Amino acid sequence: MGAAIVDSQLPESAALADEVRTGLQTTPKRLSSRFFYDAEGSRLFAEIMHSPDYYLTRSEYEILETHKADMLRQFSPGNQPFELVELGAGDGLKTKILLGFFESQKADFTYAPIDISADALDGLVADVRRQWPDLQVNPRHDDYFSALELLSQETDNRKVALFLGSNIGNFAPDDAVDFYQQLHDRLQPGDIVLTGFDLQKNPAIIHTAYNDREGLTKAFNLNLLRRINRELEANFDLDAFDHYETYNPENGEARSYLVSQKVQTVTIKALDMQVPFQPGEIIHTEISRKFSRTQIEQLAQQTGFSVTAWFTDSQGYFADVVFER
Ligand SMILES: C[S@@+](CC[C@H](N)C(=O)[O-])C[C@H]1O[C@@H](n2cnc3c(N)ncnc32)[C@H](O)[C@@H]1O
């Protein structure tokens, strides 16, 4: 890829080293899903978004296409200026529906995408600047927890935070409450958060989304081991691990695991670590939580927001929900 467009001092390699050191010495072993998104992980996720089994992207795409005018009315009544800040923007595939529409309506706004993946952010920013050269874009290569201060910067303009693609599903329930409390603390009255929530539905549909027929989710999950091999000089044998997914309809949690296929010991040279695995032993890599309408309303209520709009797709699979501070 060409020269980076987005400046960064984000110490991702140090964060990965900490995560691997701690997570692979814990029982059961675990690694955080935020480390999925190196260049190859971001590329694989873009492929997953086009997979026929991964209904999430299609559903949210439909919502944004159908309701973009209602969303603009929510964000900018009377064409008031606003600052659009996107947490975990990725390649912005769906956000571009909004950006294109807002530009066509001559809305007065700026766009600040935030992501820990430099590759995803670089691609997004290059694309947005090419398509809409007049739009002011202020990218930030950062963790969205550290970037929250952007939301508390003094300005007369309304802040609109986008948190699309069911990113919220990767948070444990208490962490989600904590995150929305932090958002509430930083935003001003009248500011807005638009969140994409994947809704509870037939468990078989959810299970298939994370066990797609093309094996993309499997490749995405295994790529985490490839990243550790490259960045931390490890020797994970990718053929000796499999992908496994569970969905528990009682608590709405889809969970991804990597499963050791045999007795093996992995060496992680940069950390001076040996990691033993038993056959069938797992590394837990991701939670993708699915929500009921009641849970979403409770999240807003517990963290001091009001639900002011609720947009869903024709199948009722996904919801983009407006919380107003
Ligand atoms: C599931 S993808 C969704 C992307 C986009 N929001 C969408 O709807 O298509 C998650 C994105 O969040 C980013 N991400 C994950 N954890 C993050 C964190 N802690 N801080 C900033 N970005 C993060 C990843 O790099 C990835 O681009």
Automatic annotation (TrEMBL):
<dbReference type="InterPro" id="IPR035094">
    <property type="entry name" value="EgtD"/>
</dbReference>
<keyword id="KW-0808">Transferase</keyword>
<dbReference type="Pfam" id="PF10017">
    <property type="entry name" value="Methyltransf_33"/>
</dbReference>
<dbReference type="InterPro" id="IPR017804">
    <property type="entry name" value="MeTrfase_EgtD-like"/>
</dbReference>
<dbReference type="InterPro" id="IPR051128">
    <property type="entry name" value="EgtD_Methyltrsf_superfamily"/>
</dbReference>
<dbReference type="InterPro" id="IPR029063">
    <property type="entry name" value="SAM-dependent_MTases_sf"/>
</dbReference>
<keyword id="KW-0489">Methyltransferase</keyword>
<protein>
    <submittedName>
        <fullName>Methyltransferase</fullName>
    </submittedName>
</protein>
<feature type="domain" description="Histidine-specific methyltransferase SAM-dependent">
    <location>
        <begin position="17"/>
        <end position="324"/>
    </location>
</feature>
<dbReference type="GO" id="GO:0008168">
    <property type="term" value="F:methyltransferase activity"/>
</dbReference>
<dbReference type="InterPro" id="IPR019257">
    <property type="entry name" value="MeTrfase_dom"/>
</dbReference>
<dbReference type="GO" id="GO:0032259">
    <property type="term" value="P:methylation"/>
</dbReference>
